[in-house]
From TrEMBL:
Short name of any one Pfam family annotated for the protein: Tautomerase_2
Name assigned to this protein: Tautomerase family protein
Length: 128
């Protein structure tokens, strides 16, 4: 699951395209299937979103939650792909994008009435 935070006036107009960009990177780097898009957008009021100096109102935080198992190089490839594609397709400069990847063990995920370590029918690989 992916959660994206930003100032509503900047995030709302781009969230559909941003979702496409994020999912495209997830597909190309992680091999995620087309139907595995789970994005949540949290548009915030300007006075509810504090961010570091040197950033603009386009500052966007992307939290990626996924099952553990991917190599550090894969994480880095995903982060770099996101920076490149968000800037080239949406014009949001990399300085205005913060990306975190949070991994949990498969047994800490619950979906379709089972835990992630019980799932044997995933259409994508976790260990890449």
């Amino acid at each position: 699951m992916i959660v994206v935070y930003g100032i509503k006036e900047k995030l709302n107009p781009i969230k559909s395209k941003l979702s496409d960009v994020i999912h495209g990177c997830m597909q190309s780097v992680l091999g995620m299937p087309e139907d595995k898009r789970a994005h949540r957008f949290v548009p915030l009021e300007r006075d509810d979103f504090y961010y570091p100096g040197g950033r603009s109102d386009a500052y966007t935080v992307i939290e990626i939650n996924m099952m553990a198992g991917r190599k550090p190089e894969t994480h880095k490839d995903l982060i770099k792909a996101l920076f490149i594609e968000i800037e080239s397709q949406l014009g949001v400069e990399s300085v205005d994008v913060e990306i975190t990847i949070k991994e949990q063990q498969p047994y800490q995920w619950g979906f379709r009435g089972i835990t992630g370590d019980e799932a044997n029918d995933l259409k994508y690989k976790v260990n890449v």
